[in-house]
Amino acid sequence: MPKNFKVILKDKKLSLTAVRLALLEALEENPHADASLIFNSVQQRLSTATIQSIYKNLNTLVEEGIVREIKPKGQVSLYETRIDDNHHHIVCKACKYVYDTDCHDCAPCLVPKQKHGFLIEEAEVIFWGICSKCQ
How far apart are CA 59 and CA 8, in angstroms? Predict the structure, then answer.
């Protein structure tokens, strides 16, 4: 079911700008996209969009918890709108494609031995391997 981004942005008291809405739509269509792919997608909808506006909006949406940033080692940041759970990712070492993988239990699905006084809210895991297409 598509997310109602207008309601989500209003709930966070964020402006409903054309760039912001196009960015969120682009991310729904292209999960795990980098800023360049998002920019190209948004530019097809709004020729006036700039790469600066994409980065600025991505930062705002990540800070507000509307978009999740993923940072696989050796790659640029990737973004997704799936933020309502504590899922993890599997990255192919060959083609760099990113897959979602669900947890077996409820969030956070990993529990550290020492919490050091923290109230643990989430865990982020990236699994690495070779996908079936690249094997």
Answer: 16
